[in-house]
Amino acid sequence: MNRTPEPPLATIAAAIRRERERLGISSAELARRAGIAKSTLSQLEAGTGNPSVETLWAIAVVAGVPFSALVEPPSSTVRVVRFADRPAIRSEEAAYTGALLSPCPPGARRDLHLATCEPGPPRAADAHSPGTVEHVVVSAGRWVIGPEGEEVELDPGDHLTFPADRPHSYRALTPGATAVMVMEYR
């Protein structure tokens, strides 16, 4: 049985509150800036919501922080992420799941993610923070990935780098498509 773990709700709730307070804005203002419902944000801050990749990215962009700042609890210097225990978050739009494998360490600005996807509608991603660059290495299956109008078909072992501060998308062409992604924040 292939079970996808639930997102780390308590960590997400605390991180959203922390970042909102750091910005000095109300829940209503953060929700407005992120383009999400105030009730959705309230549920997330209470640890009772069901966050999607799209919602968390929108909040991260507004807060000006890496995605990992919202989903990753503090950890020790030695860290193992077991496949069955990875903190996976599903997309609302497509058969796409993203899992943060390695958060941005102090002094650096990058996150490492594992993405899985099944054939079907693409997962459309809004532009990330200005200057963000995405690196994708396909580990299984075939994908079509890239900025709008510049999507590229990729096979296992292929590496793609593109500006992720523009709208972009991910689409699996074969079942079980898997890729490792490095988000580089500037």
UniProtKB/TrEMBL annotation:
Record protein name field: Transcriptional regulator with XRE-family HTH domain
SMART domains assigned: HTH_XRE (SM00530)
Domain HTH cro/C1-type: 16-70
Gene Ontology MF annotations: DNA binding; DNA-binding transcription factor activity
Keyword DNA-binding: yes
CDD domains in the record: cupin_XRE_C, HTH_XRE
GO cellular component: cytosol
Domain of life: Bacteria
Keyword entries, A-Z: DNA-binding
